[in-house]
Amino acid sequence: MRARFGRADLIGIAVVIALAAAAAGFRMATIEPRAYVGLCAGAHAPLVCAPRHAVLWLQYERLFGFPALLLGLLAFAFASRALGVAGAALGIVAVINYNGTEGIIGAALALWGWLEAAMPAAFDRGEGQRHARE
Predict the structure, then answer these.
(1) Contact 78, 2 (CB under 8 A)
(2) In terms of Cα–Cα distance, which of 65, 116, 53, 70 is closest to 94?
(3) How many of the other CB atoms lie within 10 Å of CB of 69?
(4) What pTM was estimated for this model as a whole?
(5) Distance between CA atoms of residues 69 and 62, nearest Å
(6) Do 119 and 133 contact (CB within 8 A), yes or no?
(7) What is the pLDDT of residues 83-105, one digit of tens each?
(8) Which residues contact 63 (CB under 8 A, 6 or more apart)?
């Protein structure tokens, strides 16, 4: 059996790529340069220091990874495309922000649930659609 990808799946792929690119770009532009450490520690810090501080706090508290893992588990359990997109996107953002263990497991489970939702019905006997793993 092959997964059937429709327009919603292509939009989901675009969302995942866009969020990953935004997270990587923000990290390279504001978190990695050492100059921002001194700028943000000063009395009149630029406005970019507030989201920078929020991202670093979320990273240190592992609040990118654990929600990604939870979304991945839900996407896997319910074979949901929407949860799969959300889990994959947050999982990749978690890996970019050094919450790698939970992020990669969450992204993998989310992708599995997303692909499971895209699989054609194995049997259709008037009972509704059943997925391949049922």
Answers:
(1) no
(2) 65
(3) 25
(4) 0.85
(5) 11
(6) no
(7) 999 999 999 999 999 999 999 99
(8) 57, 99
